[in-house]
Amino acid sequence: MDFKKIIIVGGGPAGLAAAIEANRCGIAPKDILILERDRELGGILNQCIHAGFGLHMFGEELTGPEYAGRFIDEVRARGIGYLCDAMVLSISAEREVAFVSPTEGFCRVKAGAIVLAMGCRERTRGALNIAGSRPAGIYSAGTAQRYVNINGYLPGKRVVILGSGDIGLIMARRMTLEGAKVLRVCELMPYSGGLPRNIAQCLDDFDIPLYLSHTVTGIHGKERLEGVTVAKVDDDRRPIPGTEEYIECDTLLLSVGLLPENELTKEAGIVLDRITGGAQVDQSMQTSMPGVFACGNVLHVHDLVDFVTKEAYRAGASAARFTAEGAAPAGKMLPTAGKSGVRYVMPQKLDANGTLDTDTALFFRVDNIYRDKYVVLSVDGVEVIRTKKRFLEPGQMETVKLNDTAIAAIRAGSAVTVSLE
User: Fold this and answer.
1) How far apart are CA 70 and CA 309, in angstroms?
2) Superfamily (CATH) of domain 1-121+258-328
3) Disulfide-capable partner of 16 in 71, 315, 340, 414 (CB 3.0 to 4.6 Å)?
4) Cβ neighbours of 209 (radius 10 Å)
5) Which of 134, 161, 172, 171 has the alpha carbon at shortest distance from 215?
6) Helices vs strands, H then E, count in the chain
């Protein structure tokens, strides 16, 4: 059986960054293997031709392919091994990775450490239970994005978009620029799921209306979509009788959320977080399985790829350290939790005996729109960090960086909470 010090599952922005950082930390290029199931490296960024990537990492606006290209070029320049068209089938507790590819056939490779970087997938129509038949013209927003940006196909001419996630907002603009008429964007929640800049640049700039607290309740058409029924919803997100409206359209795009791609993780027996859908990790990005690390959208869905990269750097460095030093002695683990408006906190646990420094950050999302709130980090109920935030919303990920006071409290404490006041 072949052996690699580090195997990285996924060749998107997270996997590429983790491989580069592992190499920087002393792992030889020949001892690293990236396994990517697509035909080329880069992941979802290959179809994201809009600008807005790299502002934090590079201080400039790049398109998705430009951002990915910088990491692909560095991986190749360093001589780091990678294999495309490689589908990983399983991961064992002994860190054996089974995969299949057209060139290599079926293979098993033993790893010193594994980094999970499989990204995320879109929720489909099947998760929504919308009444109606199954006509052509219904796509997830990401699928439509691939058709337009990669294949050069326009999915339709009169478009309704359900969901105001960032992909849906970006596709509203993209479809308009390609000549389609985007009639409206409907959002079930009373707030948008996308970044404020995308609402401004993709909807407001093109006079595309956003209907909050609205959803699609019916699909009409047999061979091709002919129209949809849209209704307003109440506080319990149930359609309000009498508010139904029929909209004639030939295309419905679904932007109804992203889910971490964690079938491999689940089958390996790694503990998952019930809210994020990703693995539970500590500050080194290590999962419940020693020597297996996770980063990027497979861990929790990010709003900016720059944060994915920073997280992947930490995972790559931690994997390199694990291969050199082995498993660290079991330390005191402090669970993290969100309350009073904070939906989840990641990492879900902190190793009090592990690497804690002022570069360590806790990521979180809120459960509603809030204005003029304090973000409070507490250890065993005692406040250690308080930060004023003028505006918080679910579509934007927030962070709390640890300071020396917080680190000292965590080393002596037993539980960490992040809350709003």
Assistant:
1) 12
2) FAD/NAD(P)-binding domain (3.50.50.60)
3) 71
4) 11
5) 161
6) 8, 28
Q: How far apart are CA 200 and CA 80, in angstroms?
A: 40
Cα torsion angle, 347, 310, 279, 258, sign: positive
Q: Tokens 């590429």 sit at which residue? A: 16
Q: What is the CATH number of domain 329-421?
A: 2.60.40
CB 113 within 8 A of CB 317: no
List where CATH 2.60.40 sits in the chain: 329-421
Three-class SS state of 373:
strand
pLDDT tens digits for range 288-301 = 999 999 999 999 99
Residues of the chain with CATH 3.50.50.60: 1-121+258-328, 124-256
d(CA 133, CA 223): 9
Tell me the pLDDT tens digit for each residue of 233-267: 999 999 999 999 999 999 999 998 888 999 999 99
> Distance between CA 319 and CA 380 in Å, rounded?
30
Provide the CATH number for the domain formed by 124-256 in this structure.
3.50.50.60
